[in-house]
Each structure stands twice: as C-alpha cells, then as structure tokens.
Amino acid sequence: MNLITRIHLVLVTCGGLALMAFLAPVSAHHGGALEWDFEKSAGPVTGTATQFGFRFPHVQIFADVPDENGEVQKFVFVTRWTPTILREHGWRRTSIVPGDKVTVTYTPHLSNPTAGAITRLEVNGELLETNFE
Amino acid sequence: MQKKLKSAAFPLLSIIIGLSFSSLASIAQEAEPTDFNPGDFSGDWDRVTSIVTYSNVPGSSRAPNNRPMEDVGPVAEAPFTAEGLALIEANDPGYGPRRQMVRNDPLGRCEPMGIPRNLTAEVLVPHNTLEIVQLPDRIIQFFEYRHDWREIWMDGRELPDLDIYDFKWNGYSIGHMDGDTLVVESVGFDDRSWLDKYGYPHSDQMHLIERYRRIDADTLELTMTLTDPVVYTEPWESDVKIYKLNREKRAGWDEQIYCVPAEEMLFQDLMDTGNVIQ
Fold first, then answer.
1. From B64, B103, B271, residue closest to A109, measured CB to CB
2. Among residues A116, B32, B150, B207, which one has the fewest Cβ atoms lying within 10 Å of its Cβ?
3. Is A104 exposed, middle or buried (0-12, 13-18, 19+ CB in 10 A)?
C-alpha cells in the first residue's frame, strides 16, 4: 500500500468514525427504552420556552403550550442527543432562553401527554437542527 | 547571475521536494503507531463489541451506536439458582426482554453502577470511554459515564477480610500480571447494583475475575469469570469484550457526567417511570 493510499485510508476511517458518533441516539440511557410511541408523530405545536436545561443525559426544553381551547399546558421536550453532540452542531447553553417562541414536532410519550422527544425544532422561527441522521 | 540562479534551482527544488516527502512519511508513521508495550494498559478505551450486558444473554446485541444487531452467538441465558431467578424477576429494567415502563433500575436513582456494569460501557459514543491509568502500586480505571472510578491494587496485598470490611459498590480489587495478561480479582460487592442494564443480579458473595490483554497497539480485550453461588449455579463466563484506543479523547474536555439527583429524579418523574426516591 503506497503512502497516498494509506493517508486516504486514515482520512476515510476517521470520517466514518465521526459519522458513527453523530448517528448515536441516546434514547433514555438514564434507564429506559420504552417511553416513546415511535409509531406516531405529534405537532407541530408552538409555545413559549420557560426553561432550557442544556445538560445530561437529555437536553430539556420546558414550554407553555396553549391547547386548542387556549388553556396552557406545561410541556417538556427532550432531545435524542447529549449536550456534547449538540454542541458539535452549534447548540449552546444560550440557544434558548425563557420567552423564546418554540415550535416543536415530536414523538409523543406513551403515558405522559405533555412530554415529547423532539424531531423538529424552530426557535423564534429559525430551525435549530436536531436530526443528524 | 542568471546562470547561477538556474544552476541552483534544481538542487533547491530537489531539497524542497525531499523535505516534503519526508514530512509526509513522518506524518504517516505517526498516524499508524504499531509499537506497544503489552504490559501497558493506559489510555482511553471505547467499547466496540455489541454485547451490552455482562455476557451474551438473549436480546443483548446492540452496536456502540445503539443500533440493534443480530445476536452474535453463542447466546445463553445465565445459569440461575432458584434465588437468582427470584432476584431477576424482582428487577424491572428499562431495557431488554424483561423491560418495563415502570422500573426500578438503580441507575435511574443515581445509584452507582458498580463493577462489572461500569466496564460494559453501555452508553454510546462519545461517552463510553474507560480510561486506564497505571501507577507504580495500582491501576485506576476512570469511567466517563457517571464520573466514577475504581482502584486495582498491584502491590501484592491480599483481598480484605469481609468479616471486617463492608461491601462496596465497586468492591475491592487486586491484580497481577500473568504473562501479558492483567488478571484482576475482586470481592466485597454491594448487592444493590445490577450486573448490567438488563437487570441481571448478583449477591454480596460475587467473586469476579477480569482478564485484560492488549492484543495490539489499539486493541484491548477483556473477559470475565463471575462466581456467585447464591445467584448462579456455576461460574459464568462473559463474552469477549473489545475496546479500541481513542487517541483523540484528551484533545477535548472531560464531560463530567455526574448523575445529579435533582435532575435525574425530575426526569424520571416526567417520563412516568416510577423510579424516584420517595
């Protein structure tokens, strides 16, 4: 194997490993894999962020979301990815602040109607990337 | 003057080209180290084999990126005693064939994972790193997930008298070299921990042997033998676990993945798992 081929092989391998890292879902490694109804998709719903937890194991966005009757429901939306991986994609602990408008499409929780795993997220009308597959 | 410049050009160009190739060759050489000391286990190691439990029990194969995989075989259920069966039935994990929505995994209450669960690196890249540090009298293993660590004493001491010493989450460990294999022997485990995320149990009588072998510069192999007459009818061998050296890990920062009870309990409550400290 000549030198150029060896260097190319190293670069391709590193790229592949990096891609594998970004494909790593972390669905509930705090202790479960059953919470989500992956057969369904809910939303988009729009609400007002009240708290942003940029922390392990899953980043959490708490939001007040009015239902169809105008009554405010307190939702929690979680990301599939850890803060480490989100940071690689431009997220920061200041990416969302209380008062921001959040529009969320999500996988619903099986038993908690106000919990969801984010599949698409807009913050003040701007897409904040959550799907790296 | 022009003649002098022309006559100097070719040698200069040759030198420049020669130095460039020399640099590239040097880079290529540094990128592919092959020399290693088989008695040196230090470094950051990422699990790359698919079994996420102590051994290859039914349903255990998941890739490091958490994708389900075909069972790699041979698959075998643990050799339970009657009490062992009762213990696993009482455990309600969130993963595996026995998984439950309402669960009691100690992990979900921020309780330590213990050994061997810390070793099976059940979490995903880039957080599945086991760092090994070798000191003159002991080896320290740091586990990035849950920010835990344990000591393996290499100073020739004997295991402690468990009539005197209490049971600990990571037990008590001593080690020695057997040729190129690091043999670690451990006792004194707190029985509140689980062997793995599927809820396989152990008692405080567990006796664990770990065998580490660095089979090349970038590959670490671990096999384990667990003896626990309370829970298992015979010594239970693990599958072969392979770790790869992560040479880039320390270019970043320790994520300090503590389990913070206030945060974890909130999350468990939101997810309706019932796994909260009352």
1. B271
2. B32
3. buried
On whether the CB atoms of residues B125 and B63 are closer than 8 A, the answer is no
DSSP codes, B184-218 = EEEE-B-TTS-SSTT-----TT-EEEEEEEEEETT
Q: How confident is the model at residue A24 (pLDDT cuts 50, 70, 90)?
A: very low
What residues of B are in contact with residue A55 (Cβ under 8 Å)?
A: 260, 263
How many CB atoms are located within 10 Å of the residue A111 CB? 14
Cα distances (Å, whole numbers) of residue B171 to A53, A120, B129, B164, B191 = 34, 44, 21, 14, 10
Q: Do B108 and A25 touch (CB under 8 A)?
A: no
Check: complex ipTM more than 0.85: no
Helix axes A3-22, B2-31, angle to 10 degrees: 50
With an 8 Å Cβ cutoff, are B271 and A60 in contact? no
Domain count for chain B: 1
As given in the structure block, the two tokens for residue A122 are 């807009």
Binary contact (A32, B95; C-beta < 8 A): yes
Residue B218 lies in a domain: yes
Q: How many residues does chain B have?
A: 278
pLDDT tens digits along B73-127: 788 999 999 999 999 999 999 888 898 889 999 999 999 999 999 998 666 667 7
By C-alpha distance, which of B112, B83, B88, B110 is closest to B99? B88
- Residues of the domain holding B179: 43-277
- C-beta atoms of B124 and A24 within 8 A: yes
Please report whether residue B48 resides in a domain: yes
Q: Which chain A residues are within 8 Å of B125, Cβ to Cβ? A: 20-21, 24
C-alpha distance from A55 to closest chain B C-alpha (Å): 9
Name every residue whose Cβ is closer than 8 Å to that of residue B46 and which is 6 or more positions away in sequence: B64, B121, B125, B128, B129, B130, B243, B244, B246
CA distance B104 to chain A (A): 9
Q: Is position B188 within any domain?
A: yes
CA–CA gap between residue B256 and residue B265 (Å, rounded)? 18
- A50 at the B interface (CB within 8 A)? no
Q: Closest Cα of chain B to A24: distance in Å?
A: 4
Residue A12 forms contact with B (CB below 8 Å): no
Domain for residue B32, yes or no? no
β-pair partners for A120: A105
